[in-house]
Design goal:
The chain is mostly helical and about 270 residues long. Helix 7 runs antiparallel to helix 10 and helix 8 packs across helix 10. The N and C termini lie far apart (about 65 Å). It is found in: Cell membrane.
Length: about 270
């Protein structure tokens, strides 16, 4: 059954969407969009180092993404505004990675596949890694769910309840590095942050609880990857960008629905008061 490349691609996309959903919600709640960008952009440096050292690309991307995320966490609040620090590190990591890739000799590199993903080339081994990574992230976030929510809501409240905010930040850092490593094949380093943020942002206006937001974000992400995969196949367009474009369309539609709902609520309240 897994000999069908479209089926493998769909399963890979759904696996990444399920792993990205809870992390995307925390990225939105904590306003960590640039943090996700910095970690994702470091992945191309991990690819270059893996090729230079003849090691697993998954392992290289995971290690470099994790090191970047930890470095950003350590440097935050030490004299630089967070958005400035993350902007510098994100684009510097991408630039160094591209330079390093250009220096790799004797290996044929499809740079576009790493930048924008190559989901149609997902093999059975890739599928196992994606499934394992997604399961690890979901187990890790589920295990620390209550503590992560408390630390996100209020660091002082977390400390009062015996929760160390730095430890919860480390859990998010590790999970984010895993998602970056497994999503590289699906959407590439330039679009990983978009797949994290857009489904969560689209789900936010319609959910009253954090759990509901994660569930809706997972559905939107899975639908975007599956629908984007089909659209790319029909339209002969790049798959990774098509997936993110469809997610962006869903976000716009959700925003319009929410705007219309708010206007109707204001009109109803003004009619009642008059």
């Amino acid at each position: 059954m897994l000999d069908d490349f479209m089926l493998r691609a769909a399963l890979a996309g759904i696996g990444v969407a399920l792993a990205a959903a809870p992390l995307g919600c925390f990225v939105v709640w904590r306003r960590m969009a640039y943090f996700g960008d910095a970690t994702a952009h470091a992945a191309i440096l991990g690819v270059a180092l893996s090729l230079l050292l003849s090691t697993s690309i998954f392992a290289g991307v995971l290690v470099v993404s994790l090191l970047m995320a930890i470095l950003v966490s350590l440097l935050s609040g030490r004299g630089y505004a967070m958005d400035t620090l993350l902007g510098v590190m994100a684009h510097s990591a991408l630039a160094f990675g591209l330079v390093a890739v250009s220096l790799v000799s004797g290996v044929r590199i499809d740079l576009m596949a790493y930048l924008f993903g190559d989901i149609l080339a997902v093999g059975k081994g890739d599928l196992v890694l994606i499934a394992g990574g997604a399961l690890l992230v979901m187990v890790l976030v589920g295990w620390r769910w209550s503590s992560l929510l408390t630390a996100t809501l209020d660091a002082d409240l977390a400390r009062a309840n015996g929760i160390h905010p730095g430890r919860e930040q480390l859990v998010l850092t590790l999970s984010l590095a895993v998602v970056v490593a497994v999503a590289l094949k699906v959407v590439g380093v330039l679009l990983i942050a978009a797949l994290l943020i857009i489904p969560a942002a689209a789900a936010r206006p319609f959910c009253r609880t954090p759990e509901a937001m994660v569930l809706v974000a997972a559905v939107i992400g899975a639908a975007s990857t599956s629908g984007g995969l089909q659209a790319a196949y029909w339209l002969d367009t790049p798959t990774g960008p098509t997936i993110v474009s469809l997610a962006a369309v869903v976000f716009v539609l959700c925003s319009l629905v929410d705007l219309g709902r708010r206007r109707l609520a204001r009109m109803s309240s003004s009619d009642i008061s008059s």
